[in-house]
Amino acid sequence: MKKEEQMRHVISILMENEAGALSRVAGLFSARGYNIESLTVAPTEDASLSRMTLVTRGCEEIIEQILKQLNKLIDVVNVCDISESDHIEREMMFIKVAANDMDCCAAIKRMVDIFRARIIDVRNKTFTIEVAGNRRKLDAFVSAIEDHKIIEIVRSGCIGIARGSNALKAQ
Amino acid sequence: MELTGAEIFVECLKAEGVETIFGYPGGAVLFLYDELAKAEKRGEIRHILARHEQGAVHAAEGYAKSTDKPGVAIVTSGPGATNAVTGIADAYMDSVPLVVFTGQVPRYLIGNDAFQEVDIVGITRPCVKHNFLVTDVKDIAETIKKAFYIATTGRPGPVLIDIPKDITDTDAKCEFHYPESLEMRSYNPILKSRDSDIQKAVDMILNAERPIIYTGGGVIMSGASDELRHFTQNLNFPITNTLMGLGAYPATDKQFVGMLGMHGTYEANMSMHHSDLIIAIGARFDDRVTGNIEKFCPDAKIIHVDIDPASISKNIKVDCSIVGDVKPVLLELSKELKQRGAMPDQTALAAWWKRITAWQKYDCLKYSPSKDKIKAQYIVQKFWEISAGDSYVCSDVGQHQMWAAQFYKFDKPNRWINSGGLGTMGFGLPAAMGVQLAHPDADVACITGDGSIQMCIQELGTCQQYNLPLNIISLNNGYLGMVRQWQEFFYQKNYAMSYNEALPDFVKLAEAYGHVGLRIEKAADVEGALKEALDDKKRLYFLDFITEAEENVYPMIPAGAGLNEMKLL
After folding, report:
1. Does B182 touch chain A (CB under 8 A)?
2. Which of A16, A20, A64 has its CB closest to that of B313?
3. Residue B146 in contact with residue B182, Cβ under 8 Å?
4. Does residue B156 carry a pLDDT above 50?
5. Is position B53 annotated as part of the catalytic site?
6. Is B482 a catalytic residue?
7. Range from B317-321, B366-370, B417-421 carrying the lowest mean pLDDT
8. How far apart, in whole angstroms, are the C-alpha atoms of residue B485 and residue B508?
9. Which residues of chain B are within 8 Å of residue A21 when distances are taken between CB atoms?
10. What number is the average pLDDT over the span B500-510?
């Protein structure tokens, strides 16, 4: 398959908040050889429903098949490829960096300001920074402070929502 | 009145109209069995004791495939459940409606590596339509209702319900109420097609010059054989069936060009390859049907009718998709054609038939009869003649399966019962039991081989217990024939482990189980043996036919080839 056909897609899934529902989705992707770039899941305003945001790559046919296969899962209430239309994506990242001297601290602080990130924990010789934004912003932040020693990175994976009044609801 | 979980279980089965349940008891299902036995004494539900859980599930499949009812099975936890997995996976691949109950260790032991504990819900997740772990006695009734609904609607499939022992005991009780209807916001199968799709399909049909109708198991499951015959005969189009779809259209009709695919007929595959319109109905473009996808039917536009949207454009991109139940879709198509009052170009169609007739002249299923060793093809052909084409035929998997499909001409649906998707050796005998139990007065055969029959041979015991007068037609060539054929063609005749070196004496084996065993070694004795078996409606006959050892199934599309690159004898 040609590389350029492998477009990135953000798929929103509304599913019954049942034991094992997550493993049905994860199992579907591994069984059929689809890739998962990231996956997040949490309850919604309706406690009986979970909302999942799944980022995957594939050509048009594969994405169509993914949507159909997801729809086929009994626990899945509704599915939408939100990247097909105007939408917002955010991801959160914690990044722990070494802050050994004043120069270093100042440089990190400067980058944190530029990226509108926040330092949420300061300890002897470490800063823990919180950054939110789209994937590119987080990638850019990581490369911006690469000169400092990065101790640990945790990323939440992407969550997404459609712009405007469109909403993914139980049909 | 408050009932125990086990009592609720039985009441639910009765409410679903379950008459027969296949199973095997064990520790985790003892409370359920206690109630099942009482129900059997009351004449409400019949339990069929298989000799292995795989047999129980295959029998439930045979029962379901030969009727319009779901198959129901019950097994215990741990090994009982894992033994059932092959049957469940088989049902999943062939879309057989099943409800399988597994016992589970008590709730407080789940996750504890308890005795006979497995996470069967986890194990079966990729091979069920859906599964449930019931964690409260109050949920049993609704879960069972959902299971039957899911198993039998939309694209059918197996549903598993895992029931911990402690919600079936005599302490946990609750009020019983079986829901009359069900609302599931997450499951709404599409049954009715869109008008615009029907219009588009009819446009394509009317413009076709070299059409072919290609139908699969979906037609049989939808009960749409009459509608298919009407649709096909009205258009005078050629029709081919998949392995799973045999019998949906009468095989002896002149418009039928035989099965397609790897061991399909030359005319069916050539007609597909050279067509300009394929009308695929309840079929899924399986790799055994398409051959090399790159070379698949280069000139054909495709209409695809399927109840499962995920089947459409999965392997082959189609031009017109109609999502819906086959039967109403066929009615809609026929209605629309009638309303338009038009027909496709008849001159082109006549020319197309002329080409097809020329392909038919290759007589691709011909085989050289032998006076010495019996040809397997000859046995199936004779069996078809003697049984007047009216037997139910179950088969195992391998060469015998292909010969059965090629040489037994099925004129009716639900008569041909085999394991197509999963290709499960061992399927045939237990499936035949299920068919015989559903149709006690019918002739039921199991066409098998010396390899396959040994994979569920223990079920001869079940046949004895329930007096099932099957006709087991074993095409014994001493080899795992299909494996040997591939080794001959593609592995330089290195017959690695495909020779059955230590076969039992099947005659004695059948007799040990209280059946009739016959060994047939001469072609002249074939007819007599088949007649004897068919005439005896009371006893199971195990016919051990010693056949030509190195016979191959022809014609054949080698792996990687297109439908037009068949290997003829």
Report:
1. no
2. A64
3. yes
4. yes
5. yes
6. yes
7. B366-370
8. 29
9. none
10. 96
B70 — phi, psi (to 5°)? Answer: -75, 155
**Known catalytic residue: B116?**
yes
- Is B47 strand, coil or helix? strand
Cβ neighbours of B145 (radius 10 Å):
18
Cα–Cα distance for residue pair A121/A127, rounded to 1 Å: 6
pLDDT at B543 over 90: yes
How far is B221 from A140, CA to CA, in rounded Å? 56
Rounded-to-integer distance, Cα B9 and Cα B207, Å? 55
With helix as H, strand as E and coil as C, how does B372-417 read? CCECHHHHHHHHHHHCCCCCEEEECCCHHHHHHHHHCCCCCCCCEE
Q: Is residue B279 a contact partner of residue B271, using CB atoms and an 8 Å limit?
A: no
How far is the CA of B249 from the CAs of B220, B240, B389, B439, in angstroms?
9, 8, 14, 22
8 Å CB contact of A68 and B309? yes
In the structure encoding, which two tokens stand for residue B480, read together? Answer: 């795992």
The verdict on a CB contact (< 8 Å) between B122 and A77 is no
Asked if B305 and B311 count as a contact pair (C-beta separation under 8 A), the reply is no
State the catalytic residue, choosing from B270, B482, B556, B566.
B482
Convert the pLDDT of each residue in A109-130 to its tens digit: 999 999 999 999 999 899 999 9
B370 vs A159, residue with greater confidence: A159
Mean pLDDT over B122-138 rounds to: 98
Q: Say whether B130 and A68 touch across the interface (CB within 8 A).
A: no
Residues of B in contact with A68 (CB under 8 A): 309-310, 312
Mark yes or no for CB contact B187/A74 under 8 Å.
yes
The ipTM, to two decimals, is 0.92
Interface test with A, best of B110, B186, B190 (most A CBs within 10 A): B186
Residue owning tokens 């060009």: B257
B174 has a pLDDT exceeding 60: yes
Active-site annotation holds for B101: no
Instruction: For chain A, say whether B350 makes contact (Cβ under 8 Å).
Output: no
Tell me, yes or no, if B317 comes closer than 8 A to chain A by beta carbon. Answer: yes
Whether the Cβ atoms of residue B221 and residue B95 lie closer than 8 Å to each other: yes
Q: Which two tokens stand for residue B75?
A: 């097994």
Say yes or no for a CB contact (<8 Å) between B125 and A16: no
**Could you report the per-residue pLDDT of B31-71, keeping only the tens digit for each?**
999 999 999 999 999 999 999 999 999 999 999 999 999 99
Chain B contact for A44, CB < 8 A? no
The dihedral through the CA atoms of B109, B114, B117, B118 has a sign that is positive
Segment B449-471, tens digit of pLDDT: 999 999 999 999 999 999 999 99
Is the pLDDT at A88 greater than 50? The verdict is: yes
A74 contacts B150? CB cut-off 8 A:
yes
Q: Which token pair is B302?
A: 């495709």
Give residue B369's pLDDT: 82
Count CB atoms within 10 A of the CB of residue B462: 24
Which residue of B121, B125, B310 is in closest CB contact with A72?
Answer: B310
Strand duo B516-520 + A87-98: pairing:
unpaired
Q: Does the CB of A23 have a partner CB in chain B at under 8 Å?
A: yes
B377 classed as catalytic: no
Q: How many CB pairs under 8 A join A and B?
A: 44
User: What is the helix (H) or strand (E) element at residue A122, kind and residue range?
Assistant: strand A118-123
Distance between CA atoms of residues B288 and B420, nearest Å: 10
